[in-house]
Amino acid sequence: MRHVPMLAALLLAPWLAVAGAQERMPAPVHRVASPDGSLEVSVTTDGEGRASYAVARRGLPLLAPSRLGMLFVDAPKLERHLAIEAPRYRSHDATWEQPWGERRYVRDSYNELVLTLAETAGPKRRFDVVFRVFDDGVGFRYAFPRQDALPTLRISEELTEFNVATPAIAWWIPAGEWNREEYLYHRTPVEEVGDAQTPITLRTGDGTHLVIHEAALVDYAGMNLTRVDGRRLKAQLTPGTDGAKVVRDAPMDTPWRTILVGDDASDLVESSLILNLNAPNALGDVSWVKPMKYVGIWWQLHLDRLTWATGPRHGATTARTRRMIDFAAGHGFGGVLVEGWNIGWDGDWFGNGQDFSFTRATPDFDLPALAAYARARGVMLVGHHETSGHAAHYESQLDDALDLYAQLGVGAVKTGYVADAGQAKVLGAGGRLRYAWHEGQAMVRHHQLVVDAAAARRITVNPHEPVKDTGLRRTYPNLLTREGARGMEYNAWGEPGNPPGHEATLAYTRLLAGPMDFTPGIFDMRTRGGGRMATTLAKQLALYVVIHSPLQMAADLPEHYEARPRAFQFIKDVPVDWSDTRGVAGEVGEYAVIARRDRAGDDWYVGGVGDGVARDVTVPLGFLDQGRRYIARIHRDGPRAGWRDDQHDLVIEDREVGADDALSLRIAPGGGFAIRLQPR
Q1: What pLDDT does 19 receive?
Q2: N or C: which end of the chain has fewer CB within 10 A?
Q3: What is the per-residue pLDDT for 308?
Q4: Model-level pTM?
């Protein structure tokens, strides 16, 4: 009898060996490739049940294994003891039409993998990770179903990683600092990245460019990145107001985490990945959304020639606004922005905002009469609501303020949230005032409330000091543009202004997120202290093409435009709505050349901007229609041009060209060029 256990052990030994081997076998790897096969995402779990993904391009690693998961303030983390279940695959290929934008028709082509990750121990919670792989990048997000074990998500942090596989140079701005998104870009090895905002652009040793960002940021905290070690970057959500960074009831989806990929910097300009990861138009008929150029009472405020506050130098007066309306009507501009028109600018308004009225004008500004005068002249007043970050105060007047604009025919509003980061004001639990970050969940909700309220009244929105752009303009086409970077006003203030390579950096970083109200077109390039801005006149023209915005300002004073009518003509002619956009040439921070086709016709426009180094640039014209000849009207830096030399040395010349030609042009230090190509 004592030999029976030994006999049983001998009989069971082969089965036990197989079972042990199965326990030690690596988990299966699930893969999905882009439609052209160049990009591949692989997802698996390790021996402790930690899930990770990796991205390869043309067989070479782009992102090394990068973890997935979530931390909560009131529940165990979702990271270990996960098993992948029920992989589902599908493909999608369709084309949709933008009502306005950088191109009219957008192809949306991807292969999708949806994986359910289920806990094998503990609460037995489950969630999906959805991957969409495009030819030019990857998007993925978490999707949480309704379940008893996790009815409400109180998220303290994501564990999402982006582990850059090979050495790379990174262009990034810091996160969590006082000046929101308005910083100059660092250029460092990825190993020297600190806490960074997105988009962050990287260039690997073989020239491949990748951009990490997010899409469809709705009712969630904005994502930053923090470097953990080596080249491993981890998601860092913007803080919330009451402990958790995100509070949502299930079912819920997170925003998409995006990795845009290109062979060079110019490839990045042509991507529609961010837009494609947003939901289609939710507003229905948006024929009332009108892209336009505008002028305004704005630049003279930053030059300190006039003031927002009332008094002898008050800018927003009835007489001055009438003159600006006349100028706009005489030169074909669609709108006139007036800042400082309302009660609340006197005293300490910065970071306060509780004294603002959004329905009461100052005594020297007749809002109804000016709105009527503008309409009679074919021009629209562009409304302005500066909140100083006091979102709660603004919300208390929002309906009345927008009703007033709708009644008066003010069809566009520029909002502002000037306050140090972390000092926006929102209502928290129990109606208590809380301080919030500009890209925290509370402010994301606030901006959505404003967009929805404006859309209900057929008003478009242009937020400054905003939440970052993540492509929501597809879903809400009245969200036309936004700020979210260092704009032209930094040049007005003087040292330190924007350096000469700033715009050539924005083209391949911030502008990949979406349109920016940069406010270009400065012809008198003196700062308010008498210094020089780092630009030439040709570069100011080029910015209308390089920087996409469906609301594009001619920011300088009328007398400066009237003094240079030939250069001003380009601003009057250049469209703000396009049927196609091409990246022609460029390197991040050095130079950018971009071509766009007028949506209303067959003309093409090309803009090129450089940094502080003179360079010769070749502009191939292969984007033109084959077999057609074009007259290229070129506005370029003259032989004496340069931001430290003759800033106004501008040559305007015509050349006949076709698709097989290339233009050789010189960019002066701080310079650029602007071209209009008209079919013969």
Answers
A1: 38
A2: N
A3: 98
A4: 0.95
In this structure, are residues 122 and 81 in contact, taking their beta carbons and an 8 Å threshold? yes
Task: Verify cis geometry, omega within 30 degrees of 0, for the bond prior to 14.
Answer: no
Q: What angle do CA 259, 261, 499 make, to 5 degrees?
A: 90
Ranges of residues in the chain with a pLDDT under 70 are 1-25
Distances (CA, A) of 67 to 74, 225, 233, 328: 22, 14, 10, 54
Rounded Cα distance between 447 and 453, Å, is 10
Largest CA distance in the chain: 112
pLDDT the model gives residue 350: 87
Enter the tokens of residue 514: 């979406």
Give residue 272's identity as a one-letter amino acid code: S
Tell me, what's the pLDDT at 8?
Answer: 34
CB 620 within 8 A of CB 658: no
Write down the pLDDT at residue 122: 87
DSSP string, 112-181: EEEEEEEESSTT--EEEEEEEEETTEEEEEEEE---TT-SEEEEEEE--EEEE-S-EEEEE-BSS-TTTT
What is the amino acid identity at position 624? L
- Output the pLDDT for position 23: 46
DSSP one-letter code for 39: E
Of the residues 158, 489, 503, 590, which is catalytic?
A: 489
b/e per residue, 381-402, with b = 16+ CB within 10 A? bbbbbbbbbbbbbbbebbeebb
d(CA 505, CA 203): 13
Task: Output the CA torsion sign for 583, 585, 587, 592.
Answer: negative
User: Can you tell me whether residue 586 is helix, strand or coil?
Assistant: strand
Q: Which pLDDT does position 242 carry in this prediction? A: 86
- What's the pLDDT score for residue 18? 37
Q: Which amino acid is at 12?
A: L
β-strands 137-144, 252-253 pairing: antiparallel
